[in-house]
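Schema walkthrough. Field components (list of strings):
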Amino acid sequence: MDAFFASVELLRYPQLKGLPVVIGGGRRKEDDVLARLREAYPERDWSGDTLDRIPVDFFPRLSGYTGRGVATTATYAARQFGVGSAMGLMKAAKLCPQAILLPVDFDEVRRISRLFKSTIAEIAPLVEDRGVDEVYIDFTDVPGGQREGGRVLARLIQKSIFQATGLTCSIGVAPNKLMAKMASEFNKPNGISIVHEDDLEDKIWPLPCRKINGVGPKADEKLQRHGIHTVGELAQRSPAWLVQHFGKSYGAWLHAVSWGRDERPVVTESEPVSMSRETTFERDLHAVRDRAELGAVFTRLCEQVAADLQRKGYAGKTIGIKLRYDNFQSVTRDTTIDGFTADAATIRRHAGLCLKRVDLSRRIRLLGVRVGKLVKPGTDAALPGRYSEPHSKTPRDKATDAHTDLLFPELD
DNA sequence: TCTGGGGTCCTAGGACCC
DNA sequence: TCTGGGGTCCTAGGACCC
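Field assembly_structure (string):
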């Protein structure tokens, strides 16, 4: 198989190119960003302005940020200061206070994301979705796909995406997904990079192990402790040694990927396994002292999950909660019920029972609700009669509710 | 001044059944 | 009285990804 990996670069405002910009710290409509700017600078004539035309000086800065937001992404200019994705914005503000801070307009991101993917699918139909800004493409059977080793097709895709969205993208071309993803990073932004099987030693082996998709901070640290820093060093270890230290499955996988071996197909369709909603509070809450607030948030999370399920046409039978304490330790509890449900009250009832099984004496910074073991009602997995009806107040339900009320009595 | 939100997959122990 | 393995499902936690 020949694979492309394409990722789109999501920064859109041309006047910000080359400047330190951090995206993150909350969701906001672009209109709302504009409204705030108008408010902050009333003396300026804003008529006809859109964000892509506003002078750099007017954009909000990272300096003075308070809150628990993290950076979704940062431009290369911001990375120079040590700012990177997933970094807390308070810390980022210390490192680079002059950086421009842009919120995420999620509706806008989704619109662009769909455009990015549909544009590619029109050219090469076998596309695997890897999140908002990334896809794998199997172009083995695309007519003309082999010209110049894939470069011609990659250029066509780049050009089409730019026409449709105004965004640049980077493309890696390789014999499999693993190497294509690595290749896509060689020439960012707006680059094309072609890696062949024989390039393994020259182009892949010098890379740090952390560049392998699937080696995260924990595995990398352990590899480093054993003196393994690059993919090449990893490839020199025997499979037996890797299995001994990293387990049968992960050890064997590490060996395979270090030799550039990856047989995974491009998967064009998949069903969701779970849906969840979670939120981090502005300040840590206490189950007793902040009961009302916690109860309201809990109910809202259940309603949101239920709405997500219904909108997408799913129901689930495993209902669970997630808590993160003030010390950042997380706990989860879940329970599997008899039927499938997408009903907010049913979800809340069972999630409420899960809540009673965790320590609520510690302060809580995050609360989440999850529904798993999903089916699409109407398919044979969700047979009639196994689907639980939306909330009906049987005596049993009332007893359960009374139980939950001990926790959050001011609801209902 | 700590560390978002939405996911997937894997592991491991125990229950339960044959 | 003592003692089997498989297989599957459930639950909790954790690594990892975007």
